[in-house]
Amino acid sequence: MLFRSHIVFSLAVWFLLSYYVAVPFWVLGFVLLSTVFVDIDIKNSRFGNRWYFRPLQWVTSHRGVLHSLVACVLISLIVGSFNLWAGFGFFVGYVSHLFLDCFTLSGVRLFWPFGFKVKGFVKSGSWVEDVVFVLILILNVLYVVGRVIMH
Ligand SMILES: [Zn+2]
Question: Which residue segment(s) compose the domain that 52 sits in?
Fold first, then answer.
């Protein structure tokens, strides 16, 4: 999935979460950071094209280790060892990223090191993704407008 799809979806998850749980607002920064982070193992992703991620990409492959629950839990625990809320935000962003990628045709090895891939029917960057992106974006805008009007 594209960078922008991950951002709007993580925002939607954040809105839903912060509606039910009293999460500090700054945690949103970690949600967005982790949702962007997961794709640094992809050469042509928004931030993955930086030269300094190249060595990492030799180790992990596209949709490899980073796109797995093992990495999600481990890295979130490391972040959480510094600050629990930060680790929580990182976990939420990470899971939302993996969830969305599960719908892609290329799929994710969610249960790495097992080879089994979770796949969907959406081609990354296709019109289906565009529709999903716009729908979630509209939901987000409606939610924010709704919150502003209610207050
Ligand atoms: Zn991804």
Answer: 3-150
